[in-house]
Design goal:
It contains 11 helices and no strands. The chain has 202 residues and is mainly α. The radius of gyration is 18 Å and the shape is elongated. Helix content is 80%, strand content 0%. It is found in: Cell membrane. Residues 30-160 form the VTT domain. It comes from Sphingobium rhizovicinum. Keywords: Cell membrane, Membrane, Transmembrane, Transmembrane helix.
Length: 202
Amino acid sequence: MTEWITTIVEQMGYWAIALLMLLENVFPPIPSEVIMPLAGYTAANGGLNIMLVIMSGTIGTVNGAAFWWWLASKCGELRLKKLADRHGRWLTLSASDIDKIDDWFDRHGSWAIPVAHVIPGLRTLISIPAGLFGTTFPRFIILTISGSAVWTSVLAGAGYFLGRQFSAVDHYLGPAGLAIMAAVLLYYLYRVITFKPSAGNA
């Protein structure tokens, strides 16, 4: 997996980094924990500028997060609850779960956005309650940038400063990325099997 990512980054440069990070946030096919260290390593070899690598990764992340914010804000809480009532098992989300998310976001709110960007899976999900429950778009973008810029800097910096030693680390990145994706899939299947609808909608 890491070889073709490296090839795409080398051929398409910053556009590839931004696109891969956007896709990682819209529907996570490849974890950022794989993409950004590889991009940083490419920069260490002189193929790219490390600051532009970080900027490209951040831009892709922000655009992916903005898509989910926009979709959630357009859908609205009532429509999402109806969708949960109808397809709740496969969404692993019930109307009562949405109420809980609403209450939680009211208490902890927007500051969860930058923190979520260091946690696989949550960096996508956090955009949904933000769009549903009233975080303004400018505030959402600022907080998303602050969280994603730090995280992409750490990951790209790791690949950059490891330099030649990165080849040893790369041996473990492929299996680690696959393990993360497998864990996400298993968790989803667990939620589907153990899903319990809201009492009023059962």
